Amino acid sequence: MPFYFAYGSSLLRAQMERRLMGNRPVTRAYLRGYRLAFMGNSTERKGPVVNLLPDPSRFVPGTLYELNEVMIHYLDRAEACEKGTYQKVDVIVEKDDGEKANATAYQLSKENPPFGNPNLGYLLQVKQGYKEWGLPEEVLEEALEWSRRNKNPNP
What we know:
The protein is 28% helix and 40% strand. By secondary structure, it is of the alpha+beta class. The protein has a single domain, classed as Hypothetical upf0131 protein ytfp (Roll). Strands 1-3-2-4-5 form a five-stranded antiparallel beta sheet. It is globular and about 40 Å long. The relative contact order is 0.25.
């Protein structure tokens, strides 16, 4: 079964269970060579969402879920791949035990989406996911600060 690497609101187990009943949370994992940034403008989330940006000096904490092909199809729809909002990317992550695993993650499709401040409700969801999984919240705080500093004043 394929692995899905979650790093945003999909960290919330309740959200994943609503979206994909029967999914199997596996373990925490880390994607090296990327950073988190708040970017784009999600209508559903009412503002920017966390996104993966290449950065060889950083890592993104998250979790792995084991999904079947039907679940991946539903997740593609939930992430609005057919509308061009997100695209699937193949990544190699490191599990908590150090073992490497191939996984699928989602990244904003739009080239160079603007940075910005997320909606508070969305941010609290992502923070709750970090708490549920015991992930280092300082990475999320750094992403917030970095995105604010790099925000385009004239979007």
